[in-house]
Specification:
5-stranded antiparallel sheet, mainly beta, 6-stranded mixed sheet
Length: 553
């Protein structure tokens, strides 16, 4: 039988018998017995059945298409009013994180990142230069939204615009710098900075705050006349506290995609991060101090002091990205600049004097100490069951890696604090797998990997990307007989990508963003997409949706 006709299996227990007949694997006993990280991610100590679905076929339609039995509600779209102050939902919806209110699975605060603007929010840009009004809109429509969401008695997810917590965090919001670059010459002696933008993916901390990652920040900073060193950091906010806004410089400055947080065997905090550029590196930060659950949000200080490492895939080692290591390399009179570094030795010696210089120029420093350039390392997630680390390498046409792949890192001794590792190519994009250009990742409680794709709008439905049609959302088992096999769960509207998959703790709802539908539009009177096709709409709008239809076994 054609695999596409099978019911995809996402559970354990009795349902495994039905799934087995379709050739779909179940979790290995070792994986299903895991504990602490899964408890943090999902809030329970046993596996749950996430549901079943009949995989869909690729589509070119201007619709968000889901399997039979599933539906979506548009919670908030670009320009929707989110609170009593009249603040508007931003553009370029990306990462989502749901924070339950009083333990509820049906009411909570939803964090949504706004990565960049489109013609639909700032209008056509003439001759490549924004007007003053467009510069202001560009700063406003990026950043983050905190909205309150709930599921009503009819099972429909909605936004509560009366929420006392709902707000925007934009390119105008004041944030505090922490860590080694704070107040140093490397950032113009700043201790606070204006705004956050280019907010791509993110993460949730062990102390229940949200991390948001500034990715392609240079263009907005320069167009706005802002100091570019103030951007490219990991931002931390508390969705329940409007005054809590930080940028953690110890985590390095580069084109951050997301964060994945875990604990070492001895209780220190680890944060994995990718640099979403061609020929860029994979990082992890290990805190100096240990996590203490009783301290709550005060654990945030752990992100201010520790060691930043970069992956050397050839040696299987994590190399410190520190001023000591940089100076050790530059101290060799026979120094030869590695690929990706063009500066001469003396110029580099003049640049790197302190750890602040290292974190501000992190991408270059990482290459100097031996970091391995990779193919756009985007989202990174830690398996909640076995501490293996999954990395989406989206693509790199410079090396002929057109469809990308997902790498899986095995830390030595199963310890996230280890400085040695091995790795495998867990899944490769292409015709054989049915997906191309993997991006954001999320796990369900059974260890299945949910993967969205990021085929660029200009490449969709063309050339070697024809077979994949519009970008999609796929489910890939990480163990069992179907380990590494991708099943398509959703197809996005024209010229969109779906981003930020995030489950409620009971896994009955999946939040998902639809980013930049109709991105190739040049004439607002003739948009290439009009999704979400709401009454009276004449243009496309990025939005966050809530998907329901998951069944418990």
């Amino acid at each position: 039988m054609d695999r596409k006709t099978f019911l995809s299996y996402l559970g354990t227990g009795a349902a495994a018998l039905a799934a087995a007949s379709a050739g779909l694997g179940v979790l290995d006993g070792k994986a299903s017995a895991a504990s602490t990280t899964a408890d943090h991610l999902f809030g329970f100590k046993t596996n749950k059945v996430s549901g079943y679905f009949e995989p869909i076929a690729p589509s070119k339609e201007d619709k968000l298409i889901l399997p039979k039995g599933f539906k979506y509600d548009v919670i908030a779209a670009m320009d929707d009013v989110i609170n009593k102050d009249g603040d508007k939902f931003g553009d370029g919806s990306d990462y989502n994180a749901f924070f339950p209110i009083d333990g509820s699975n049906t009411r909570g605060l939803l964090i949504n990142n706004h990565e960049y603007t489109t013609i639909f929010s700032v209008g056509p840009i003439k001759d490549g230069k924004m007007t003053d009004d467009q510069v202001q809109k560009n700063l406003y429509y990026q950043g983050m939204s905190v909205i309150e969401v709930y599921r009503d008695e009819n099972g429909t997810w909605k936004m509560d615009t009366n929420s006392k917590h709902a707000r925007r965090i934009t390119g105008f919001t004041k944030l505090e710098l922490t860590g080694p670059a704070r107040g140093t010459a490397a950032v113009g002696n700043a201790t606070t900075v204006q705004g956050t933008f280019a907010n791509c993916s993110g993460g949730v901390t062990l102390w229940n705050t949200a991390l948001s990652c500034e990715e392609n920040f240079t263009e907005t900073a320069e167009a706005s006349g802002l100091n570019v060193t103030h951007y490219g950091w990991v931002v931390e906010i508390d969705p329940f506290d409007k005054s809590y806004l930080k940028k953690h410089t110890a985590l390095g400055r580069f084109s951050h995609e997301n964060t994945a947080m875990g604990l070492t065997a001895d209780g220190r905090v680890v944060v994995y991060m990718g640099d979403d550029k061609k020929d860029a590196c994979v990082y992890k930060f290990v805190s100096k101090g240990k996590f203490d659950k009783s301290k709550g949000r005060a654990n945030s200080a752990l992100l201010e002091s520790g060691t930043l490492y970069v992956a050397n895939l050839k040696s299987g080692k994590w190399v410190p990205v520190t001023i000591e290591e940089v100076l050790k390399v530059l101290g060799n009179e026979k120094f030869k600049a590695p690929a990706g570094v063009s500066a001469k030795r003396q110029d580099l010696l003049n640049k790197y004097k302190t750890q602040a210089d290292v974190v501000v120029n992190c991408a270059e420093a990482a290459l100097l100490v031996g970091g391995t350039p990779t193919d756009r390392p985007e989202d990174i997630e830690i398996s909640p069951f076995d501490n293996t680390v999954f990395i989406s390498h989206t693509n790199n046409d410079l090396h002929g890696n057109i469809h990308g792949h997902i790498t899986r890192i095995f830390e030595s001794g199963n310890d996230l604090g280890s400085l040695e590792f091995d790795f495998e190519i867990f899944a490769a994009g292409g015709r054989q797998s049915g997906f191309s250009s993997p991006d954001n990742l999320a796990f369900d409680s059974n260890g299945n990997l949910w993967v969205v794709t990021d085929i660029s709008s200009g490449s969709q439905n063309k050339g070697v990307h024809k077979a994949f049609m519009n970008n999609g959302l796929f489910v890939i088992p990480t163990s069992g007989r179907d380990k590494g096999v991708a099943y398509q769960f959703a197809s996005g509207p024209v010229e969109s990508e779906m981003t930020g998959p995030f489950f409620t703790p009971d896994e009955q709802t999946l939040f998902l963003s639809v980013q930049h539908p109709g991105e190739e539009t040049t004439d607002l009177n003739n948009p290439t997409s009009r999704w979400p096709h709401r009454a009276g709409d004449t243009k496309a709008r990025a939005a966050v949706v809530a998907i329901s239809g998951f069944k418990l076994g």
